[in-house]
Design brief:
The protein is an alpha/beta fold. The chain contains 16 helices and ten strands. The chain has two domains: 163 residues, 3-Layer(aba) Sandwich (D-Maltodextrin-Binding Protein, domain 2), CATH 3.40.190; 120 residues, 3-Layer(aba) Sandwich (D-Maltodextrin-Binding Protein, domain 2), CATH 3.40.190.100. The strands form three sheets. A five-stranded mixed β-sheet has the order 7-6-8-5-9, sandwiched between helices. Strands 3-10-4 form a three-stranded antiparallel β-sheet, sandwiched between helices. The relative contact order is 0.19.
């Protein structure tokens, strides 16, 4: 997972310098039913899920695995679908969904990581985005602990740090815990410190790896240190400890391009690049199984909820399957809207 996160962060630089953007046409009018049934159909109703097994991609990182298991359980529970959760990787999904229609669903697809494959499938009308996987697109940013947010209620945005930090630091400096130096976010964070005028007010700490990064944050929070740190969502640590996201302002593509360069001469503030993550479905599912397509059209999950699920996964004895079972058992307030009114 550490390597995956590092790879995803490094990919941001490549996208900013030479973007190959994916196309998105989110399914916005999938029908939950068809034409009025004939008398024969009323007598012998067609199964809601059709006659094909619905395959769901379980990709190799925890959030995607949890989503695959959750959707498998809900499709079986609510619609009586026959579901197959299949192991897959991101690049293979983009290729096989277009060529064979399998898997039928990829709950956490990152189209910009495989833009060429994704665009080919969209253009060929063999796959599409049913919905955004997460309700928010801003996945990266700077955070402060809740105790600091409560002590400094005026501190809402990164642009306000320069005015607030002197009172917090006393005679020293506030630490800004960044990410490992070989990750793209480390370069961006160094430039953002300059852009926000914080060079003389913060000590930028770049941990050696993800484990050290989490340890430093946990230690700072345990000692009630006035600390600022970089992180991304969804993530377990944001649910295990209480944090508040700072407003990073608007995303400026030109400023972001410079921020991603080690030699950025005149860094300007910008939010981190937004990331579109989608629930991808094969075209046959969208057209042949409209009830299930409608379910996925409504299936966006709040980022904070996934952070909570990842925190549950870190508990002793927990598994992807047990976390999915717990979500289905306890969070009908969320998934009930996915299933739709009148479905058990």
């Amino acid at each position: 997972m550490n390597r995956l996160i590092g790879a995803l962060m490094l990919a941001v630089v490549g996208l900013l310098v030479s973007p190959a953007w994916a196309q998105f046409t989110v399914l916005d009018h999938a029908q939950d039913g068809g034409a009025a049934p004939s008398p024969e159909a009323v007598a012998q109703p067609a199964p809601l899920c059709g006659t094909r097994t619905i395959s769901i991609a379980r990709v190799g990182w925890p959030s995607a695995q949890i989503l695959a298991e959750i959707h498998a359980r809900l499709l079986a529970k609510a619609f009586g679908c026959t579901v197959w959760v299949m192991q897959a990787d991101l690049a293979a999904i983009g290729s096989t969904m277009s060529a064979t229609g399998e898997p039928a669903v990829a709950p956490e697809m990152w189209p910009n990581r495989i833009a060429e494959l994704w665009n080919a499938g969209v253009n060929a009308q063999t796959l599409r985005a049913a919905a955004t996987t997460y309700a928010q697109a801003q996945l990266e940013g700077w955070f402060i602990p809740d105790y600091l947010a409560q002590a400094q209620p005026q501190l809402k945005a990164a642009s306000e740090l320069a005015a607030v930090l002197p009172a917090l630091a006393g005679t020293g400096r506030v630490r800004l815990i960044s990410c490992p130096p070989d990750w793209a976010c480390a370069v961006i964070n160094r430039n953002l410190v300059k852009a926000y005028g914080l060079t003389g007010q913060v000590d930028v700490v770049e941990p050696a790896n993800r484990l050290e990064m989490d340890t430093l944050i946990a230690q700072a929070v345990s000692s009630k240190e006035p600390v600022v740190f970089y992180y991304w969502q969804p993530n377990a640590i944001l649910a295990q400890l209480s944090f508040t996201a700072l407003d990073m302002g608007a995303y400026d593509a030109g400023a972001a391009k410079c921020l991603a360069q080690v030699s950025c001469a005149d860094p300007k503030p910008s939010a981190f690049a937004p990331e579109t993550v989608v629930v991808a479905i094969s075209e046959w599912l969208a057209t042949d199984v409209p009830v299930v397509a409608g379910y996925f059209r409504r299936s966006s999950l709040p980022l904070q909820e996934m952070s909570t699920l990842l925190a549950q996964l870190s508990e002793g004895g927990a598994s992807v399957e047990s976390v999915a079972d717990r979500f289905v058992a306890e969070r009908q307030d969320i998934w009930g809207a996915w299933v739709g009114a009148g479905t058990p």
